[in-house]
Please model this.
Amino acid sequence: MGQIFGQVGQAFVQAIPTVIFLAALVFILKRIFFRPLSDVLKKREEQTKGALVQARDRAALAGKKAEDYEAAWQKVRQEVYGLREADRRAALAAREEVIRQARERGETLVRDARTSLAAQGEATRRELAPATQGLADEIVGSILAPPGAGSAPLSGAREGAS
Model:
């Protein structure tokens, strides 16, 4: 058993330079390689997170601006529809006014024409009344005249022939 302890002790003594070498290697690798690599990875992660946060903020801002733009667009569209409706109503009112005025002018023209026609008809009746009476007397005379007496030519026919 003492021999085993001696061999184990000797193995530990022989392993000391290897352990020191490994400890130095781990210390050097941590100091020179892993720490800068870890710092770079942390910095990269922070930048990525920062970029993601910034991208989310910008996306939220863009969404807000899009909503504001859409609301403004709707408002302007409603204003334009309101203006178009007002213009349409004004045009309809103007058209109705023109139609009303044309109707009034038409009614006035018809009334004036009827009055004029009535006056012309009355004037024509007054002009033709004496001639009508004379023609009626001649026609009655020719119808009531004895059959062999011969019919006298109508005075209107004589006037038209001369």
About this structure: The chain has a mean pLDDT of 87. Residues 2-144 form the longest helix (143 residues). The helical segments are 2-144, 155-161. Residues 16-136 form one domain.
